[in-house]
Structure formats: C-alpha cells, structure tokens
C-alpha cells in the first residue's frame, strides 16, 4: 500500500491557485472558471459603480439647473408687464389684470412650486410676449439653429483638427506660427463685433451677401436651398472663425505630447515612415482629449449662438433666447435655459461613458 504524504505536505487549493500551478483535470478547470467569474463580477461591479457615479452627477447637475433657472432670471432688472405695456395707453387695472394672467401676483413660493410641477410634466408654460407654448416655439426655431450651429461645429472641428495636426508635426515652422497666431487672434475677437465687421464689408459695402435673415420671401424649390446657403455664409464664417481655434490648440498640444513618447521611437526604429507613424500611432492617441471637447460642443449646438443669431437676425433658438431676455419673458427664458443646459449635461455624460471605450487607460 502506498503511503500517503503528511497533510501539511499537500498544498492547499488557495496556495496552488495563488502561485498559478492549478491541479490537472477538472479541479484546475474549476479553479480557472471561478477565477474568471470572479474577475468578471469585479469588472461588472466597477462598471456599475462608474455608471452610477456619472448618472448621479448628471442628475445633480440637472436639478441644480432647474432650481437655478427659476431664480436666475428673476434677479434681472425689469418688469415684464411694464416692458410689454410701454408706450401704450393702459390703466393700472389693466396692468394688474395682465400680472394676474402671467401669475406674477402670486407669492414667490407658489410660483416656484407651479414651475417645478410644470418642469416635471415637461411643460414650461406659455410665453408672455407671444402667448404661445414654449415647447412649440422651441420646435419651430430648432431647425435653423441645428443647420447653422451644426454646420459651424463640423467645419470648425475639421479645420481645427487638421491645422492642429499640421502645426504639431511641423512644430516651430512659419506656417505653424502663423496659423496659431491667427487662430488665437480670432478666438479673442468678440463674435458680435466680427459679425458686424463682416456685414459692413461684405454685405453693406460689397453687396455680396444678405445682411440678415435666413431666406428671401417667395423663393421655393431648389432655389430656396441656394438662397438659404447664401444667407448662411456670413454667420457661418463668424462662428467658425471664433470656434476653430480651440480644436486647433487642443489637437496641437495633444499631438506634441505624444510625439515625445517611446512607442513612436520604436515605430520609427521598425522602419515605418513618418506619415505612417503619425497616422497609425500618434493620431489615435492624440485624438482622445478632443473627444470630450467635441461632445460638449455638440451639447452647445442647441444653445445656438445668441449674439451671432441676433446680429444676423437668424431665426434660431439663440435669437429667441435674446428676445426673451429683453422683456424678460420668464417662461421662455426658463424653458430655453433648462433645455440648453440639459443638452450640455447629456452630451457630457455621453462623453464620459464613451471615453473608457476608446481609451483603455481610464477604464474602471
């Protein structure tokens, strides 16, 4: 009969698993399966915690926006009733009746509760000056804003990223210095001032483009498409000129950081050309920091461009927001502010969720 070894000479299962030499047969497979399940469960818990943290942060931000929007626009100087009746022969009784119609005669707490209940129903009330539901007006003005600001975002991102790559790869060259200097100069210029200059030179002076509006009345069919594009040139150039610099600078800085990495030296040592090193290795990593910037700017698309749309009389959400501020039209500006902020919060949340998928280094 074979003599069994003493019990202390037999390694414990945990010790075998720790040092990686699991027993053969079904026992080793069971240990491997248990380890894999443990790692999967741990990864699932980390992902759930990461998702929960991001969702909680977005929810807290949205609640803060909803509360802020009610009080923020009530500290703006101005009485809606007085502004809307200015220059009209109205009596004090009529002004009081108008205030009751708007609900401005109610206590502040009652107005706040009514506002919160409306937000929960996704109902922001009716505009004071237009006497129409806020959401219907948002739906009408959404298309022009998406067209103008969406196009400017696409052009700005493409132009800024391309110039940023060229500037980083030819760091210190004359073209790099000129492009960076021009971008910084345009970025520092107020958008409304640049828009006015373009109107004076290219619209009023040379007469190449319309001074305002989105289209010419009476134009239909394919001619209307060309007419809208003609009207969009100056506001589009204004938005691109003041926005593309941030893409250029972020892309240039990210690529410069990557160019000093060891993996690029290794790639060159393997015989890859500089264009291949840039396209296959440097650019994918340098694009990561611009992801958040792109998604945040997508969120700002709904916000429109308040000053640019106002200067060019572009019938979008930005101009509507400006018109609401001039009264102040409380339901209109409150609703627009919540919608704008919710879009930014949502896009920021999407970027937080997508970023770990494209960059393994930040995965939970």
Write structural notes for this entry.
The protein has 364 residues and is mostly helical. It has two domains: 40-129 and 327-364, no CATH class; 135-325, Orthogonal Bundle (MetI-like fold). 73% of the residues lie in helices and 0% in strands. It contains 15 helices and no strands. Helix 6 (134-169) packs across helix 9 (222-259), helix 8 (191-205) packs across helix 9 (222-259) and helix 9 packs antiparallel against helix 12 (288-299).
Condensed summary:
The chain folds into two domains: about 40-130 and about 325-364, no CATH class; about 135-325, MetI-like (MetI-like fold), CATH 1.10.3720. About 75% of the residues lie in helices and about 0% in strands.
Looking at CATH, which topology of the largest domain would you report?
Answer: MetI-like fold
| Helix vs. strand class | mainly alpha
> What number of domains?
2
The overall pLDDT, averaged over residues, is 80
Taking Cα atoms only, what radius of gyration do you get, to the nearest Å?
30 Å
Question: Got a strand count?
Answer: 0
Oligomeric form of this entry? single chain
Order of helices and strands: HHHHHHHHHHHHHHH
- Spans of 5+ residues with little confidence (pLDDT < 50)? 7-24
Gap between N and C termini: 55 Å
Q: Mind describing the biggest β-sheet?
A: none
How many helices does DSSP assign?
A: 15
Name the overall outline.
Answer: flat
Range of strand content: under 5%
CATH superfamily (homologous) name of the largest domain: MetI-like
What share of residues is helical?
over 70%
CATH class division of the largest domain: Mainly Alpha
Instruction: Identify the CATH architecture of the largest domain.
Output: Orthogonal Bundle
Domain ABC transmembrane type-1: 142-355
Biased composition (Basic and acidic residues): 11-22
Organism: Knoellia flava
Subcellular location: Cell membrane
